[in-house]
Amino acid sequence: MRKLIAFAALLGAALFTAAADAGVKIQHWVAPSGARVYFVETHVLPILDVKIDFSAGAAYDPSGKSGLAELTRSLLDAGAGKMDEEAIAARFVDLGARFSGSTDYDRAGLSLRTLSAPDKRDPAVDLVRTILSQPAFPDGPLAREKTRSIAEIQEEDTRPDAIAAKRFAAAMYPGHPYGVTPTAQSVGGITRDDVAAFHRDHYGAKHAVIALVGDVTREQAEAIAQRLTDALPAGAAETPLPAVTSPAQKTVRVPHPASQSHIHVGLPALKRGDPDFYALLAGNYSLGGGGFVSRLMKEVREKRGYAYSVYSYFSPRKLEGPFDLGLQTKRDQADAALKVARDVLDDFLAHGPTEQELAAAKKHLTDSLALAIDSNAKLIGYISVIGYYGLPLTYLDDFPAKMRAVTVQDVRAAFKRHVDPADLVTVIVATDEK
Amino acid sequence: MRTTLASLLLCALLALSGAAGAAETDTYEKHLGNGLRVVVKEDHRAPTVVHMVWYRVGAMDETDGHSGLAHALEHMMFKGTKKVPPGGFNKLVAEAGGRDNAFTSEDYTAYFQIVPKRALPQMMNLESDRMANLQVTPNDFAAEIKVVMEERRLRTDDNPQSLVYEALNASAFLADRYRRPVIGWMNDLEAMTWQDARDWYKRWYTPSNAYVVVVGDVDHDEVFRLAERTYGKLKSHVLPARRVEIDPEQTGIRRVVVKAPAKLPYLAMAWKVPKLVDVDRDRDPYALDVLAALLDGNEAARFPRDLVREQKVAQSAGTQYDSTVRGESLFVIGGQPAEGKNAADLEAAFRAELKRIQDEGVTPEELARVKTQLIAAQVYKRDSMMAQAMEMGMMEASGHDWRDVDKVVDKFGTVTADEVQGVAKKYFKDDTLTVAVLDPQPIDKAKPREPAGPVRPY
């Protein structure tokens, strides 16, 4: 491939690039259980997609127990109610349903795709309800999944891309949960009591955010949302995450035998809901977000052949999520490639985009709106973010106007507020330099 | 790249295999005078469209010493024509609010844009322009081949599992051209010249060697008219003869070991199996497809259930079988041993799973389960225009017809338990088996790889 697929997906998810041509009607209500519900009704295909999220991501791991959030989420379907993990797996398959889970720093959640026919849909929803409300966390699967998790961590710690990502997080977020990643030791120390307590505290209905897209009526959607959450634990009051502080500027060099150096430059930058989002998104498109039309791609890849993949993005989170400029290059030219990338960044921070670049960015970001929501699968990703982070229900409709209003001055000012060169940390894994 | 693409295909097949029953009623085809075919599937859910151009040329059409040429040319296709400057293609697609990319496999090279529907005429203009008027210059090539080398370092040289699959293919095949990696050997990339790329383009890029797939909110007659005005104006030239290399019969097990920095070992086992030739009469390829799905096609399948959860012998385990290929087919089983187990333990476990099917067959429940998933997948795939375009494009690329997508799904649904047991007995023998193993090396002891590739002043 000319471009990494994963890279494209990352940008899509992280940037929240585009939104709808007007016309996506998001219905919102609070279920009797207390869960917040966001629903888009569409009957074109006989499919229902459901995503249910909780503030139960890795940032909520207790100190010393890093990995607990992910382990808890991954064990929900390892036995629940009267069913063991084999019965649960077989039941989803027999219904023709697809079931999966995900954990990021802020959120942990479950996703269900099912046929909308009631004889398939209702049992699938009931199964998710049982998994969420009555997980058994049996000892056998717990021990096995801890072992698998530790093996995966140890494998990651041999891979230059994974090492770079972990060291980069640690350098950007010293002393903050966003900077912590699981270790063999932290996962090894997790007990069944830890898992059960984490579920009890973080999977309460009042903290649940449900996104629904597909072939059901409002009435059916209300019933499904309530059914999913009416037996959840009460949940503890949500503990606020500690404030993010600016890191001190530094460069971390990590030895590794890889043929390429993996480089990240960045800092904590952007919260969800920050009004500077539009200016940063538009500006970053010209800097390193716009694929082959970005300055980084032109200077680092097209002109000099230094890298296959070079990019920058903002990844907004509940608290200041990272700005990340990254590339991989043959190790003996790491410093030269990094200098080119830094020159591009510094020039951009000093002068911002040209009028022409900004116009092209705004045009692309508004016109590509339609692509971002042309399937139920894509749409539910946006709906769940709007719901979880409390963005306006009109987010998709407002996007074009907000984007069109951005000026070069806005971009420059927003970058000045969010990307201070004095705070930038640099991580280089696999380097010949000391 | 092969492994990436193979897994992409696998996902596409598992997740989305087969066309909906309705496919033929909303899909239309037109032959242009120059030999180019246009397939249009109307899907009016959203005001967007997928436009793909597939060339029937891939890494298997390369010769020894010139591996990586098909993929390198794919990169060069973005370097401009007389009308469009280098980088201009991407710029115009982006300005239209679209996304574009390209990919190369052993069998084909394909280019696509996903755009708001109003941009389709412009996309057809741009693609038809570079079908005939690409400019390959020494300077553009010199920069781009370095990008390709970085791609190889990223995807293969520093990726132990990719190295295992590279070694597996290079060992399983002696003559069949699937033995060479799609990305190319580093030494071949170093030796490649801009003239090689230009000659490749002149040889293979012609309307009669291409087909266009359009899926989206379009009127098929309008697309056909646009095709006449764009692609239809190009002249086709004669294609070189293609020789199919037949691999000599394998008469004994082959084993290969790869050492690379890693913690977990990796094991891949590949058997020679038939590919799909006659969609109507063949049975074994369909039975092999079902076998693959029974082993790892869903969370309740045998590998995740028996090897990962019950026996705890595998950290991960999967299968890979693509029956729709131009070259020869392999049925691959691969995975990482669990903590405390080694590659030999995992190999024994894989063999035991196969033996159980050979001896005891498969249950009606698990066969029904595979078919239930298949039926649901027919509905789910309609949520993705790109997946539908890929499915038709890949079927064509292997020498079949896009209409066969439906047939293959129907046939898959007719496979019996006896047939699954039959192929398990027939094809999984040591004489046609190749085994590749990753022997993990500690990273603090491994030496940096010699920076492969020419060191030039910049």
What does this structure look like?
The complex is a heterodimer of chains A (434) and B (458). Chain A has helices at residues 5-15, 68-75, 85-94, 118-133, 139-156, 160-172, 184-188, 192-202, 218-229, 277-289, 295-303, 334-351, 355-367, 369-372, 376-388, 395-404, 408-418; strands at residues 27-30, 36-41, 47-54, 79-80, 83-84, 98-103, 108-115, 209-214, 250-254, 260-270, 310-314, 321-330, 425-429. By secondary structure, chain A is α+β, with helices and mostly antiparallel strands. In chain A, strand 4 and strand 5 form a beta hairpin. Chain A is globular and about 60 Å long. With 458 residues, chain B is an alpha+beta fold. Chain B has 17 helices and eleven strands. In chain B, the strands form two sheets. Chain B has a six-stranded mixed β-sheet with strand order 1-2-6-3-5-4, sandwiched between helices. In chain B, strands 7-11-8-10-9 form a five-stranded mixed β-sheet, sandwiched between helices. The longest helix of chain B has 20 residues, at 138-157. The chains are: A alpha+beta (434), B alpha+beta (458).
Quick summary:
The complex is a heterodimer of chains A (434) and B (458). In chain A, the strands form three sheets. In chain A, strands 1-2-8-3-7-6 form a six-stranded mixed β-sheet, sandwiched between helices.
The separation of the N and C termini of chain B measures: 28 Å
- Number of helical segments with 4 or more residues of chain B: 17
H/E series of chain B, N to C?
A: HHEEEHHEEHHHHHEHEEHHEEHHHHHE
Arrangement of strands in the largest sheet of chain B: 1-2-6-3-5-4
Number of domains of chain B: 2
Strand percent estimate of chain B:
15-25%
